[in-house]
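Standup notes
- DV: blocked on the single-chain target, sequence here:
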Amino acid sequence: MRIIARFEKTESVRFVSHLDIQRLFQRAFRRAQIPLAYSQGFNPHPILSFATALSVGYTSEAEWLDVKLASDMDKDDFARRVNGTLPEGFRIIEVFSVDERFPSLSAIMAAADYTLQVFDPPADLAPRIETLLSAPIMVEKRTKGGMRTVDIRPMLYDYRYSNGFMRILGCLDAKGSLNIDLFMGALLKQDASAASYRVHRNRIFSNDGVLMPKMPERLS
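- DV (later): unblocked, structure below
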């Protein structure tokens, strides 16, 4: 049996790393006596994957995991048992039972919707956003081949800004994603010593809307 679940990561655990989250869920599954399926070979491990990593310091209500079970169980019972063992700050919100042939989470995701709170925003932040988005946004990005200068403007699909709060719709797929920190670094570079912000991931979208919400053309 294959289960895909959406879970939240709240304020109290925003500094927990992605690697620690992987370990945390493996322990929670064992404590909840979930019948996990394991890989073959010398060092078997649970067949568990996540749609994407969330940056340390971010919160989210749109994290997704994919786990294979050795035997069938009711999906509501799965959520109840796992939530009973997860620490405060993590909670499974919804659960789906999918066919083994269903694509991987990384293959179906297309974009993500974020809310950013900018603390003590510059008075000219709104026009500064417009200016920044009117041209290529060239940033230094670490890649497998080392540091490269890249244009991240095509990865930002839409935004809204009002009174220190910004909504961003950005690319998030298997080929790459909009790096929120690089974007904000380019936006706030004149105020780098004072500017700070918080990021919350609201949703991850897919192109077909079968499991994840369907990607909108614009932010609502």
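- Follow-up: The chain has two domains: 2-102, 108-206.
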